[in-house]
From TrEMBL:
This protein's pathway: Cofactor biosynthesis; coenzyme A biosynthesis; CoA from (R)-pantothenate: step 2/5; Cofactor biosynthesis; coenzyme A biosynthesis; CoA from (R)-pantothenate: step 3/5
Gene name per UniProt: coaBC
Catalysed conversion reaction: N-[(R)-4-phosphopantothenoyl]-L-cysteine + H(+) = (R)-4'-phosphopantetheine + CO2; (R)-4'-phosphopantothenate + L-cysteine + CTP = N-[(R)-4-phosphopantothenoyl]-L-cysteine + CMP + diphosphate + H(+)
Lineage, uppermost ranks: Bacteria, Pseudomonadati, Bacteroidota, Cytophagia, Cytophagales
Co-factor binding details: Binds 1 FMN per subunit.
Domain DNA/pantothenate metabolism flavoprotein C-terminal: 10-221
Organism listed in the record: Xanthocytophaga flava
UniProt GO molecular function: phosphopantothenate--cysteine ligase activity; phosphopantothenoylcysteine decarboxylase activity
EC code(s) of this entry: 4.1.1.36, 6.3.2.5
Residues covered by region (Phosphopantothenate--cysteine ligase): 15-228
Keyword list, A-Z: Decarboxylase, Flavoprotein, FMN, Ligase, Lyase, Magnesium, Metal-binding, Multifunctional enzyme
Protein name, UniProt field: Coenzyme A biosynthesis bifunctional protein CoaBC
UniProt KW Ligase keyword: yes
Length: 228
């Protein structure tokens, strides 16, 4: 991986990264989840730590392991737990990257006992989860940088731009599912990055590690701009 530089350009920077899926319990043995593996968030944690950052990684359930000792990991299950852990860390973070696939809804009630099979059909009542990105975006201070992700199946670029605005992000990474070998569970990703000023950069299909390095370099550029 000779193309990956190891410049210590994030030395002294505190980074908060959310990663993985969330599991929303509905009874003691069941949950609603999604297919996120956490690979992109973990790759970002590794690359940013390699650049000298002190990384706080808040992750939903995943089997991934970390190699860099500059990464402190907090493991959570639900969106609410991910929010609480992230909100504690956020005020001290110079850079926040929201890479988690947070469940938008959770079961309205968690049954104390395993739900028994009865009728032929069963309706589950769901309520909206806290939007971690939008909530932290409202608390963002001028010196803080916030980066989000978006996955869209239609009007990709305009929807991503709208999310960037609504959540008060500095940059949003659009994951394209259109190409074979990109997205959930794969080791590769095809990303586009949109900046607050509307500037859009499309990247080729590449490994999640290489995509994480591209994102890290764009974040370093943002830091340099802010300092100027
Ligand atoms: N996000 C979050 N908390 C949530 C939902 C999303 O922090 N409850 C973050 C994601 O980590 C991502 C960004 O918001 O960085 C966009 O997530 P996405 O699911 O694409 O957008 P939503 O706002 O949930 O809109 P929708 O799913 O309806 O497209
Ligand atoms: Ca969502």
């Amino acid at each position: 991986q000779s193309e990956i530089s190891t410049k210590i350009s994030l030395a002294g920077k505190k980074v908060l990264i959310t990663a993985g899926p969330t599991y929303e319990p509905l009874d003691p043995v069941r949950f609603i989840g999604n297919h996120s593996t956490g690979k992109m968030g973990f790759a970002l944690a590794e690359r940013m730590a390699a650049h000298g950052a002190q990384v706080e990684l808040v992750t939903g359930p995943t089997h991934l392991q970390l190699t860099n000792s500059n990464i402190h990991i907090t493991r959570v299950l639900s969106a609410q737990q991910m929010f609480e852990a992230s909100a504690r860390i956020f005020p001290q973070s110079d850079i926040t990257v929201l890479a988690a696939a947070v469940a938008d809804y959770r079961p309205a009630e968690i049954a104390d006992q395993k739900i028994k099979k009865k009728e032929d059909s069963f309706t589950l009542n769901l309520v909206k989860n806290v939007d971690i990105a939008a909530t932290l975006g409202k608390q963002k201070q001028p010196g803080q940088i916030m980066v989000g992700f978006a996955l869209e199946t239609e009007n990709e670029e305009s929807n991503a731009q709208e999310k960037l605005r609504k959540k008060n992000l500095d940059m949003i990474v659009l994951n394209s599912l259109n190409d074979k070998g990109a997205g959930f569970g794969h080791d590769t990703n095809k990303i586009s990055v949109i900046q607050k000023d509307g500037n859009l950069q499309r990247f080729d299909l590449k490994s999640k590690t290489a995509a994480a390095e591209d994102i890290t370099n764009l974040i370093i550029d943002l830091l340099v701009e802010k300092a100027a």
